[in-house]
Design brief:
It contains 2 helices and 7 strands, in the order αβαββββββ. By secondary structure, it is of the alpha+beta class. It has a domain of about 110 residues: SspB-like (SH3 type barrels, Roll), CATH 2.30.30. The strands form 2 sheets. The chain has a 4-stranded antiparallel sheet, with helices on one face. It has a 3-stranded antiparallel sheet with strand order 3-4-5.
Length: about 160
Amino acid sequence: MTDDTPDSLIPYDEIVQEALRAVVARVLGQVEASGGTLPGNHHFYITFRTHAPGVDIPAHLKARFPEEMTIVLQNKFWDLKVAEDHFSVGLTFNQVPASLFVPFAAITAFVDPAVDFGLQFQALDADVEPEPHDPAQNDSPEPLAKPAEDGSNVVSVDFGRKK
């Protein structure tokens, strides 16, 4: 065997990142459904890229946090709204209320310290196209295996396994 692992034609990293972002969406959605009340001692630290596509925060916050900022959802937040691809929330910064609109793709970290739970993400750029992949080699228009001639529906497949 060789130490060289072939490049995957399946974007596993992207699929896992998308699934983990769905965890954040589901948790925030449950808080929204409960009227914005966090259960028990739960509270969330959410870090996101302030310049990511779709992020909408006040200019003074973008100037103060030009790359990334962390918000805390604990006691004083309002109007939490969760959609499939983003959330919005009202928070106070130095006693000045602000509304934030954050696409899930902009999130780089989600932490619930009450239960020692955390997720790290690679921030996605919505305006960047995914890397092109070679076409799958099993998509030929002609079948690669022929049905058995005895009328059964058994297909013979040989994967060419090394011995």
